[in-house]
Write a sequence for this structure.
């Protein structure tokens, strides 16, 4: 049984902002299907009344003081920019 | 013995006695790198002029009466997902091929306090996703002990560098076994510390709740010393634990009398190569001779660990890797005429196939309608795994298993089948899910002369038990394997 | 107003509006939500960024404790309960103003929930439920190239991340608001509370207070809900009311024609005073919220919340109540004073100095001549340079009969100009009121002697003529004569 369809995979690729050729999409869909098939094993586990863990730490309230620290210079901020203009990061037309 | 095959603690003694100087050590590393880099490809970025310059500066420091720390003048290979100010940090990805960080990772700052030497930025699987170091945009790494074989991954470069004498020790990162598995396949020592013990600030995230930086070394003593050097609370990392200053070498005691060792049967199950199982069992027998109590135990939820991992890790990764979009840094497709076209083409061209696969899995697992069935369910099963470990550690001091179900496999052998590749981390993954510390130490050789590693797991922040056990077994096993043939 | 709208005159409208508001407030902390960069408005682009707020690889967020305090303070002032445990989620979507392509926000476990704000509409009070108050980080800013500065007409944009990571709170109401006027008053009341708390400058022009509204219509009295639209770009109090009025009219028109209202996000254009649908994205938003693994939970114990509660000052509603019930101020005056935190503080200081007998005079000055002066000069009360102490001595002098109210006005003007103390001004110009009967009697005699004709008219019963004589006395004393005294003496003398 198929877990993920080509259409679903294509939707996921859009959400993830990945352009995939139709060959790539075919291949990745079948690989995803294999992996998700394996992953489905988690459904066998009885998790009735079990809380989800997003963290193995039992710490909380990690806060910092509201004290100003040096910012980067504009030059350093833009150092790795693929394109820049007027002190900002230049991006193509927003669609 | 050549200098480049010594341990950091041995070199420190020699430096203290003025038997060697920083430049001698650097020269020895430089020589081996020049000779072996073309064969092994352990580094993405190795610059001999930087190496020499650092060594000269440290000689001045020592000459001026500067204190000799554990890693003063020691060339350390740093996995290329750890940010180094002014030095390219690529994550072995085309998308960061020319990226130069404007800040240092906390672990780098800590090593700088030691006056260490950065040997180079070591190769890895792209964004630490892989178990063979074949997923690198800068070419695969070869196992120094057998050039046909993979070194393991994702810290294949750091492990190969230490194994081959191209660095004295290394920093790796471990999300599902990425320090321990390559250490095992290269016959050296790899430690994944308790989650939160070492700052992640400056480690380019793969899966934030699982990632941890750790030492890759020639022996357990260097491992303890390197952990002492890099661990500690960091105000820049909200998930860092404040333990105060700990000197881990104090736990290097050759005594495991009365130690209770559990052997989880789920980690010795089918899929574990018989030679690997025999070798681990031999080591367990030695432990018994040394006075430890060995018992087989069952942690039933571990059978879900791989599945849980392949939901949680890709989910977190899919979000962590969103920032690579061609706007602020890294590769950009310059032909795209609109923003979203630019995103899609940049990411399609910048990421390799395994990274794209994991982004796809993760995005799917978090997407509307699937979150509860995948991500949240996996988090619940993760709780079961944590509980199983907790219960085990009520009775046992440490758990022992193989590190990897097999020895090093052939380059190309598993690249066509992602699932079979994922299975190579089956013994290491549960440890990350539970945030526990674990070490891999070599315990023998296969009939093909390939190293076998055993994994020692302890409870949260019980690195003391790990070092005690590892140190005692290291002495008893007496493993020693250098790829000296490469120098002939 | 239009023919469908309930206009508060009791006339029943055909459709009832159901309105909810989402308000974003930028907190005025020193630093950003998750890093130590200073907040800035108008700094050179990308000069208030660091590896964390630029989303550079390897960086991690750490929560600003002050931002949490400010958010809790606001939530408490809105009568919310603070949740014992709250966590941060990641909201994933790609956009150029997002450094990480996810926003750290709160989702199903927000900081606070279940509050309310009572909005005084004059003839009635509307209680608006507050669904939740949560924290998040702001995005950067896009500057669109090209002469128009519009996104649709520009080939490229420039991104400035100075604002990225600025701490925000989002305040979400229940759909309890029934008219555009209520929406406007809600926002005015909310803004005033936040200003009292001193946690944001709430400038709508600079975008530190931003509001989106959603509105649906249902036949008056009906229980079922209509289809709602969301309106964006409502960046002034006026536009909130106008935008919602337009949208009410538009939806009512559709319903009248038997057409359906489409669920849409609409953009308000204040130049045309209309709303228009934003282009629909190819796929619906799927933000893939999940708990941010780089952060740990916030746990709020009762004591910590109590400590913050103690820091909350008297809020506008309580102030008005005190002014009415304790001070006996007229309703309008009480509201006017409480509508500005600094004015209220100023008045409270005056009330404290003057005591119950004279505080009404202070209220009259503050809402009268003082307010007119500030308005004329476009000043805030804090910038006036007239301390509460100075104003009070002026009032004491009037009340004690040392100067006339007429002179007082010119003394006040000079206080405003020269920043001098009132007693100094009076001394300098010799303005003190003449209440010495002997001295006044002498001057009155002179005036009577010099105005035979007028005196005769008064004696003939033309009472009004006395005003002229008093005016002459005032002129001779340069306005300093105590008018009541002059009147008394003059009448006595003329009756003889």
């Amino acid at each position: 049984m198929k877990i993920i369809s080509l259409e679903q995979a294509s939707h996921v690729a859009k959400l993830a902002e990945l352009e995939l050729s139709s060959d790539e999409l075919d291949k990745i869909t079948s690989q995803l299907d294999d992996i998700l098939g394996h992953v489905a094993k988690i459904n066998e586990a009885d998790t009735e009344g079990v809380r989800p863990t997003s963290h193995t730490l039992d710490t909380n309230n990690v806060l910092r003081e509201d004290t100003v620290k040096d910012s980067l210079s504009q030059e350093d901020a833009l150092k790795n920019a693929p394109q820049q203009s007027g002190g900002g990061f230049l991006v193509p037309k927003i669609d | 013995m050549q200098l480049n095959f010594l341990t950091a603690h041995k070199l420190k003694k020699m430096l203290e006695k003025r038997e060697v100087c920083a430049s001698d050590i650097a020269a020895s590393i430089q020589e081996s790198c020049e000779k072996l880099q073309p064969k092994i490809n352990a580094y993405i970025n190795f610059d001999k002029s930087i190496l020499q310059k650092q060594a000269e500066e440290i000689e001045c420091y020592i000459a001026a009466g500067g204190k000799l720390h554990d890693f003063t003048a020691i060339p350390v290979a740093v996995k290329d997902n750890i940010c180094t100010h002014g030095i390219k940090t690529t994550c072995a990805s085309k998308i960061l091929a020319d990226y130069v960080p404007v800040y240092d990772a906390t672990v780098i700052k800590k090593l700088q306090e030691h006056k260490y030497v950065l040997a180079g930025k070591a190769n890895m699987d792209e964004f630490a996703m892989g178990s063979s170091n074949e997923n690198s945009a800068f070419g695969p790494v070869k196992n120094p002990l057998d050039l046909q074989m993979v070194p393991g991954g994702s810290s294949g470069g750091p492990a190969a560098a230490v194994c081959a004498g191209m660095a004295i020790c290394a920093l790796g990162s471990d999300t599902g076994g990425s320090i321990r598995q390559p250490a095992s396949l290269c016959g050296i020592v790899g430690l994944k510390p308790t989650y939160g013990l070492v700052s992640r600030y400056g480690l380019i995230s793969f899966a934030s709740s699982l990632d941890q930086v750790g030492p890759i070394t020639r022996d357990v003593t260097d491992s303890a010393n390197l952990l002492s050097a890099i661990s500690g609370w960091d105000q820049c990392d909200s998930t860092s634990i404040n333990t105060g200053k700990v000197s881990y070498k104090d736990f290097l005691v050759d005594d495991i009398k009365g130690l209770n060792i559990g052997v989880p049967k789920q980690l010795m199950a089918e899929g574990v190569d018989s030679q690997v199982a025999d070798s681990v069992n031999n080591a367990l027998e030695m432990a018994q001779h040394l006075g430890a109590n060995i018992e087989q135990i069952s942690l039933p939820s571990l059978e879900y660990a791989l599945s849980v991992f392949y939901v949680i890790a890709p989910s977190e990764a899919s979000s962590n890797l969103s920032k690579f979009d061609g706007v602020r840094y890294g590769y950009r497709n310059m032909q795209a005429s609109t923003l979203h076209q630019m995103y899609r083409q940049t990411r399609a061209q910048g990421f390799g196939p395994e990274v794209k696969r994991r982004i796809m899995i993760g995005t799917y697992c978090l997407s509307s309608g699937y979150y509860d069935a995948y991500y949240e369910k996996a988090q619940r099963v993760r709780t079961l795994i944590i509980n199983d470990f907790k219960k085990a550690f009520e009775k046992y001091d440490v758990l022992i298993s193989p590190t990897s179900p097999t020895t090093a496999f052939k380059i190309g052998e598993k690249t066509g089948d992602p699932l079979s590749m994922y299975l190579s981390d089956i013994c290491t993954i549960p440890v990350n899910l539970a945030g526990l510390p674990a070490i891999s130490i070599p315990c023998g050789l296969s009939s093909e002369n390939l190293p076998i590693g055993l994994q020692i797991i302890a409870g949260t922040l019980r690195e003391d038990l790990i070092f005690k056990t590892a140190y005692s077994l290291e002495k008893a096993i007496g493993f020693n394997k250098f790829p000296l043939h490469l120098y002939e | 107003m239009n023919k469908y709208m309930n206009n508060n005159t009791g006339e029943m409208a055909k459709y009832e509006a159901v309105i909810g508001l989402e308000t974003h407030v930028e907190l005025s902390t020193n630093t950003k939500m998750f890093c130590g960069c200073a907040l800035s408005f108008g700094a050179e682009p990308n000069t208030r960024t660091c590896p964390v707020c630029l989303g550079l690889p390897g960086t991690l967020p750490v929560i600003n404790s002050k931002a949490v305090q400010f958010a809790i303070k606001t939530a408490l002032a809105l009568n919310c309960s603070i949740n014992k445990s709250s966590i941060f989620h990641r909201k994933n979507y790609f956009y150029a103003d997002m450094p990480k392509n996810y926003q750290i926000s709160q989702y199903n476990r927000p900081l606070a929930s279940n509050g309310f704000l009572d909005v005084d509409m004059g003839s009635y009070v509307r209680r608006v439920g507050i669904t939740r108050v949560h924290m998040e980080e702001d995005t950067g800013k896009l500057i669109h190239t090209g002469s128009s500065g519009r996104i649709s007409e520009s080939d490229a944009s420039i991104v400035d991340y100075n604002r990225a990571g600025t701490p925000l709170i989002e305040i979400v109401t229940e759909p309890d608001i029934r008219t555009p006027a209520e929406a406007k008053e809600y926002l005015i009341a909310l803004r005033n509370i936040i200003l009292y708390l001193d946690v944001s400058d709430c400038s709508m022009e600079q975008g530190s207070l931003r509001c989106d509204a959603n509105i649906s219509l249902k036949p008056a009295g009906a229980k079922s809900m209509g289809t709602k639209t969301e309106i964006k770009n409502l960046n002034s109090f006026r536009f909130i009311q106008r935008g919602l009025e337009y949208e009410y009219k538009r939806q009512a028109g559709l319903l009248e024609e038997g057409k359906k209202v489409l669920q849409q996000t609409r953009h308000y254009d204040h130049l045309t005073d209309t709303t228009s649908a934003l282009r629909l994205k190819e796929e619906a938003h799927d933000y893939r919220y999940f708990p941010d693994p780089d952060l740990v939970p916030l746990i709020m114990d009762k004591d910590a919340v109590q400590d913050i509660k103690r820091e909350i000052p008297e809020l506008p509603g309580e102030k008005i109540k005190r002014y009415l019930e304790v001070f006996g101020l007229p309703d309008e005056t009480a509201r006017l004073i409480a509508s500005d935190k600094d004015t209220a503080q100023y008045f409270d200081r005056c009330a404290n100095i003057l005591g119950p007998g004279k505080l009404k005079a202070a209220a009259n000055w503050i809402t009268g001549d003082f307010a007119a002066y500030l308005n004329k000069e476009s000043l805030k009360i804090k910038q006036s340079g007239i301390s509460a102490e100075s104003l009070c001595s002026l009032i004491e002098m009037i009340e004690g009969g040392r100067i006339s109210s007429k002179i007082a006005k010119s003394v006040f003007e000079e206080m405003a100009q020269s920043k001098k103390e009132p007693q100094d001004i009076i001394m300098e110009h010799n303005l003190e009121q003449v209440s010495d009967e002997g001295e006044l009697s002498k001057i009155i005699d002179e005036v009577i002697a010099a105005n035979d004709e007028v005196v005769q008219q008064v004696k003939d019963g033309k009472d009004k003529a006395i005003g002229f004589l008093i005016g002459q006395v005032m002129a001779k004393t340069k306005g300093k004569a105590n008018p009541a005294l002059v009147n008394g003496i003059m009448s006595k003398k003329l009756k003889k």
Q: What stands out?
A: Residues 314-429 of chain C form one domain. The CA atoms of residues 88 and 295 of chain C lie 7 Å apart. Chain C has three domains: 15-304, 314-429, 437-495.
